[in-house]
Specification:
The protein has about 160 residues and is mainly beta. It is built from 1 helix and 11 strands; from the N terminus they run αβββββββββββ. A 5-stranded antiparallel sheet has the order 1-11-4-8-7, with no helix packed on it. The radius of gyration is 20 Å and the shape is globular.
Length: about 160
């Protein structure tokens, strides 16, 4: 009898956890999110990360975010990136973008769990994509070091702007 009650409690807890996770992960404004895991938490200066996204909506404004995951062993306060955004017709927008990973006192920004910190930086706000098709976002680390250590993931998120 006691074993059956424990099994029921565990099952109910798992169902509750699954439903909570399902509700938490639902984001009606997100149209795309992908993160790329860097091998060995290291990013070579000659290595780029490319993320392709298919855009259909040319009417709604969108916010574009750069996702960065670093470990607490990262030795710098910021991360500079070269960002090349290529539209379906081949036009390229080139930017240099700074991500502040720690404040002036060295406290990590973003959400942390253990020694991993997740950050999401607004790259472009209220963007209307001019044409539909596949857009290519290329990231290159611009930190003037051959191997940038302790950056574990880099990614892209695009969401529709919600009007209130």
């Amino acid at each position: 009898m006691k074993i059956e009650m424990k099994i029921d409690q565990i099952r109910n807890s798992l169902v509750f956890l699954f439903l909570l996770l399902l509700v938490w992960s639902c984001d009606p404004n997100q149209i795309f999110e992908k993160n790329y895991q860097l091998p060995n938490n290291s990013w070579d200066k000659d290595s780029s990360v490319t993320i392709n996204v298919d855009i259909k909506d040319t009417i709604s404004p969108h916010n574009i975010y750069i996702n960065v995951r670093n470990t607490s062993r990262y030795e710098m306060q910021n991360l500079f990136l070269f960002v090349n955004a290529t539209s379906p017709n081949g036009m390229v927008l080139k930017d240099t973008f700074e991500c502040h990973l720690a404040d002036s006192r060295g406290k990590w920004t973003g959400n942390g769990w253990g020694d991993i910190y997740d950050n999401q930086f607004i790259y472009k706000q209220n963007v209307r994509f001019p044409i539909s098709g596949t857009y290519k976002f290329e990231y290159i680390q611009a930190m003037r070091t051959d191997k940038l250590k302790f950056i574990s993931d880099i990614g892209l998120r695009i969401e529709k702007v919600e009007f209130r």
